[in-house]
Amino acid sequence: MAKTVFVTGATGLLGRQVTQAFDKAGWTAVGTGFSRAKPSSILKVDLEDQEAIEAALDDTKPQVIVHCAANRFPEKCDLDPSGTRALNIAATRRLALAASARSILLLYISTDYVFSGTPGEAPYQASSPPSPPNLYGQTKLAGEKAVLEELENTGLGIILRIPVLYGHSETNAESAINVLVDAVWKAAQKKDEDAQVPMDNWSLRYPTNTEDVARVIVDVATKYLDADEARVAMPRILQFSAEQRFTKYQMCEVFAEILGLPLSGMIGKGEDKEAEVARPYDTHLSTKVLRDIGVDVRTVDFRDWWKREMKAFRR
């Protein structure tokens, strides 16, 4: 019998890829959304409504929930703290309660921003003490705690921490990495007398492709579901990340090289101590726990993927 997965945030950058990956793996993939939900392909579910969540789960009867929906841009989180807490914390607890009552495996997508990123601390193990530097990280950590509390001693609540993502997108603005391509084009259009485009050349990032993340999620869901009662003894906090390291400015250099564009109109910047939203220096995640349970943590090469993606834009 085909297994069913219930994916929240299926209209987003990662959620779309996760839904596709489960579908390709032979699962019945139920993608859900709200503001961008298209009824013919995406089930509209209000995650602020407990009855709506329970009705959707009872109707679709999934064995697994993958909770991708989140307010994931730090600046937007600070602009709407109440809305961020409602989605990143309260909605997560509602899903965890509903999952617990129905014995559904819940895989919660978290972030490397649960760690401070203080120079010298990385790489962070799954067991490292969290210390989020901003509201986004704080709310995602609170979401982790909600999942672990509501599904305690069941083995049904799993956390997967991931770093900044890139991949196929509807618009570049969906990804903090994809959007750098727009910055490169902007810089290329700058004249000598124009002000240069500033770009962070301080924080270290480990951009990870959504296809790789989706593959790992399918593998984890399958492994934990197949473990049955033995899953109680399996780790509850997992981490996945690519290993290639870049600053944003270095990623822009890659994009400029591939596109054949000059980058003289961009200037790399050091640490911004007056930034409105605190950013970590290095939140590199260790993938040891995933490797220990036999999950493939290989990732696509950053430059190679973008060469293929940008072929149509080359000069």
Report the strand count. 11
The Cα radius of gyration reads: 20 Å
Strand order of the largest sheet: 3-2-1-4-5-6-10
**Proportion of residues in extended strands:** 5-15%
Tally the helices. 10
Overall body shape:
globular
Order of helices and strands: EHEEHEHHEHEEHEEHEHEHH
Low-confidence stretches: none
| Major sheet description | 7 strands, parallel
Distance between the termini: 50 Å
Report helical residue fraction.
25-40%
- Secondary-structure-based class equals alpha/beta
Round the mean pLDDT to the nearest integer and report it.
93
Topology of helices and strands:
Elements: E1 4-8, H1 13-24, E2 28-33, E3 43-44, H2 50-60, E4 64-67, H3 74-79, H4 81-102, E5 105-111, H5 135-150, E6 157-162, E7 165-166, H6 179-188, E8 197-200, E9 208-209, H7 210-227, E10 237-239, H8 248-259, E11 266-269, H9 288-292, H10 302-309
Parallel strand pairs: 1-2, 1-4, 2-3, 4-5, 5-6, 6-10, 7-9, 8-11
Keywords:
315 residues; seven-stranded parallel sheet; two-stranded parallel ribbon; 38% helix; globular
Provide structural commentary:
- Helix 1 crosses helix 7 and helix 6 packs across helix 8.
- By secondary structure, the chain is of the alpha/beta class.
- It starts with a strand and ends in a 6-residue tail after the last helix.
- It is built from 10 helices and 11 strands.
- Helix content is 38%, strand content 14%.
- The model has no long low-confidence stretch (mean pLDDT 93).
